[in-house]
């Protein structure tokens, strides 16, 4: 799939993996609406990416994945500034296990469900759309249990099952919508920096051991795997794992 006519909306794109996904799409010719709840990082990333890829290729909208109306605004802003959206990336996520654990469910699970629902409504050919691809960012923590992040692991398992159920639904597939899951292990972002400090998780000493055993990927490696899920039109309902110690590989729940 050529990205020359493509327009993406990416949540949590102000930093980390979301920013890396934006960069690889821009490098391959797509236009990107960066969305993030953090306006400071969003505006900084916008000015840097606009300087390297062109003002007309990228835009930023402050947006909260816990609000469905913000997704509607993102799709209409993207359409007016960049063109009709055909790539939706539900990337925003958090890993709080303690007092704010409910935000982990609200952002990771409910945010992904809202983003998928709005994207399906825009992409489905039977609803007047032109098709598209939805990438839901889960984690290897949604496939392999760990003692540090039970809420986080459950949230990522929920994203995987939700996406797989939609990916096999003919209402999506026969209307031109692909739905894929990216399941990275550790990547070098602010989230992993917070994990090293261990404030909001259980058994931080085990998290440190896991980081040492599994290793930490540069975000660019995760972005390469992401690009494969976007551009390879044979991939629908796929789960792509990527980790520093095992590399890249598809996973089947069946
Ligand atoms: N870094 C890692 O090792 C891994 C990360 N992931 C997943 O990748 C995704 C991105 O993670 P990172 O880049 O590492 O995290 P990060 O913490 O560096 O970036 C997350 C971004 O999401 C934004 N965000 C948080 N709440 C939001 C909300 N309510 N609405 C909109 N934006 C919001 C933040 O402002 C931030 O810019 C997450 O879903 C995470 O669970 C998955 C596997 C490994
Ligand atoms: C682990 C607690 C998570 C708290 C949130 C912070 C960072 C999140 C990082 C990830 O999503 C990393 C993914 C996996 C970690 C879990 C298991 C590692 C096993 C990897 C393997 O078997 O290859």
Automatic annotation (TrEMBL):
InterPro entries: NAD(P)-bd_dom_sf, Sc_DH/Rdtase_CS, SDR_fam. One of its GO terms (cellular component) is cytoplasm. Its EC number is 1.1.1.141, 1.1.1.232. Keywords: Oxidoreductase. It holds the Pfam family adh_short. Catalyzes the NAD-dependent dehydrogenation (oxidation) of a broad array of hydroxylated polyunsaturated fatty acids (mainly eicosanoids and docosanoids, including prostaglandins, lipoxins and resolvins), yielding their corresponding keto (oxo) metabolites. Decreases the levels of the pro-proliferative prostaglandins such as prostaglandin E2 (whose activity is increased in cancer because of an increase in the expression of cyclooxygenase 2) and generates oxo-fatty acid products that can profoundly influence cell function by abrogating pro-inflammatory cytokine expression. This is 15-hydroxyprostaglandin dehydrogenase [NAD(+)]. It comes from Plakobranchus ocellatus.
